[in-house]
Amino acid sequence: MQKKDEIKQAVQQQFGKNAENYVHSKNHAKGSDLELLVEWLHPKKDCTVLDIATGGGHVARILAPHVDIVIAADLTREMLEAASRANREAKAENIIYVQADAEALPFLDESVDVVTCRIAAHHFPDPKAFVHEVSRVLRPGGAFLFIDNVAPEDSALASFVNRVEKMRDPSHVRCLSINEWRALHVSNGLTESKQRQRKKKFEFVPWVKRLSESLAQEEAIEQYLLAATEEQQAYLEMKIEHGRVLTHQIDEWMVLCYKTGGQSNGK
Questions:
Q1: Residue 256, Cβ neighbours under 10 Å: how many?
Q2: Residue 176 carries which DSSP code?
Q3: Nearest 5°: CA angle at 220, between 243 and 206?
Q4: Helix H segments across 64-111?
Q5: How far is CA 35 from the centre of its chain?
Q6: Biological process GO terms, please (predicted)?
Q7: Which of 36, 38, 42, 159 is the most exposed place for a label (fewest CB within 10 A)?
């Protein structure tokens, strides 16, 4: 089993060399979840927002016009630099960039009004520490908007889904199930307000090539999918033609929580 530091180094390496790809990736730059962010959060002009694992800066850019300041945090410096360039081009001026570990945030207790984290937590080796940190930095009554790919509740299917992701992206750690995330939220004083689950469809070729290191890697992933059981293929809703994988789908969960009371003792 990889140690936390090794996992985080792999994340930095993977995102560092693919930073621009993530800025322009259709799966990250677009999506109905981005459109819902402002509607769900109702941000106020005096709000301080912390966007954890900002990636290409898409969430920070969407929220910036509606709040006082957005702190865009990411473990990878190259990712922050790419996000900064894209945000400056979009005239999003009220964003500051901080290199930070999601599991050990360099911010004071109860210092931000809103925390967001979108399509990133499956790279975190210690989700429990991450959720604790979210609760710690949020002011009482503050909002936490979380979006990530999630695994099914069935453990065997979950292992299959995570294996596919790991084959494609060595920095992938694990997609948790919705029930696992909910347990972490509850234990850290975060009360669910609204949620949405949706299927995300991917065209296999651009999906696999975005992070591919070799043709052999791409072929190995495709063969693994083609050899999957009927149940596994049905879960991914795979479309196969002439022995080739055309599309597959995964589950994404979007949830809005509010911090209750004072600082929780979730660790």
A1: 21
A2: P
A3: 75
A4: 77-89
A5: 16
A6: methylation
A7: 42
Going through the chain in order, the beta strands assigned E by DSSP cover 48-52, 69-74, 95-99, 112-118, 138-150, 190-203, 239-241, 244-259
CATH number at residue 161: 3.40.50.150
Which pLDDT value is given to residue 262?
Answer: 46
Phi, psi of 193 (to 5 degrees): -105, -50
pLDDT in tens, 117-154: 999 999 999 999 999 999 999 999 999 999 999 999 99
- Within-domain flag for 223: no
Q: Does residue 10 lie in a domain region? A: yes
Q: Per 3-state DSSP, what percentage of the chain is helix, strand, and coil (rounded to 5)?
A: 45, 25, 30
Q: Measuring CA to CA, which residue among 73, 68, 56 is closest to residue 15? A: 56
Own/partner long-range contacts of 46-51 (Cβ < 8 Å, ≥24 apart): 47/113, 47/114, 48/111, 48/112, 48/113, 48/114, 49/112, 49/113, 49/114, 49/115, 49/116, 50/105, 50/107, 50/112, 50/114, 50/115, 50/116, 50/137, 51/115, 51/116, 51/117, 51/118
Q: Kindly report the CA angle at 207 between 17 and 86, in degrees rounded to 5?
A: 50
| Domain membership flag for residue 246 | no
Q: What is the extent of the structural domain holding 136?
A: 4-202+251-259
Per-residue tokens: 87? 């945000």
Q: What pTM, to 2 d.p., does this model score?
A: 0.88
Give the chain's mean pLDDT.
89
In a domain, 241, yes or no: no
Which residue, chain included where needed, has tokens 């800066």?
57
Q: What are the tokens at 244?
A: 């080739």
